[in-house]
Amino acid sequence: MACGYPRRRYTLVPVDVLTNADLSAGARALYMTLAQLADDDRAQVGQEALADRLGVSDRSVRTWREELERAGLLIVSRALYAGNLGRRAECNRYRLL
Fold it and tell me: Cβ atoms within 10 A of the Cβ of 38, count?
């Protein structure tokens, strides 16, 4: 999925994520945001866009992303795309588990 936002009015999130006491509220919010942006459990979006959407810093997004990775709920890889002015740029590609 490109770095745009879907117009869905609801998002399905596994109960195991919502009730996982080991996850911070921020990590759950990040998971829910990625689930909303995901197409077939995969999302491609930059950290800055996620931070803007959640109203937090890039560092918070990185911390919560690492928390989700450690919990085995998220796999993150890098993706190349054509950025501004035809330059190659990278953003994160997320796979929800």
Answer: 19
